Amino acid sequence: MPPCPVCKALPADLLLAMKALQEDDLDAALHAGLTGWCGQAHCPAATGLPALDLQRLQSAREERLRAFAARQRHHARNQRLARRERERAEHRAAPPSAALPGAAALALARAKARANARTPDTRQD
User: Fold this and answer.
1) DSSP at 7
2) Where are the beta strands (DSSP E) in 1-125?
3) What pTM was estimated for this model as a whole?
4) 5-33 per-residue burial string, b: 16 or more CB within 10 A, e: under 16
5) Tens digits of per-residue pLDDT, 79-108?
């Protein structure tokens, strides 16, 4: 029988996956292509499987795909939190800039000049 045009699964792969599931060997079922299978009842690779076996394969496949998606979300969250922590640490470690922005420096210089112009120099050397 030809492989499925959608998922490229072969009937032998699904039979191996089913046998592995019956033996509670999830690793072997994954290696047999459980998650690569399209999961459709009309898949040519699933033709001839009893309805109960087909349902068990579909259920195991969906559980694994949900678990993989949860693991990916967990890894993405950890990476995001680590990135934020690095950014915060870099921000805390950065020395404060001593220079004023251009407009503020000009305003300060003008204010100092006005203040110096108003007050007479009363210093005695």
Assistant:
1) T
2) none
3) 0.64
4) eebebbbebbbbbbebbeeeeeeebbebb
5) 999 999 999 998 888 776 666 677 877 888
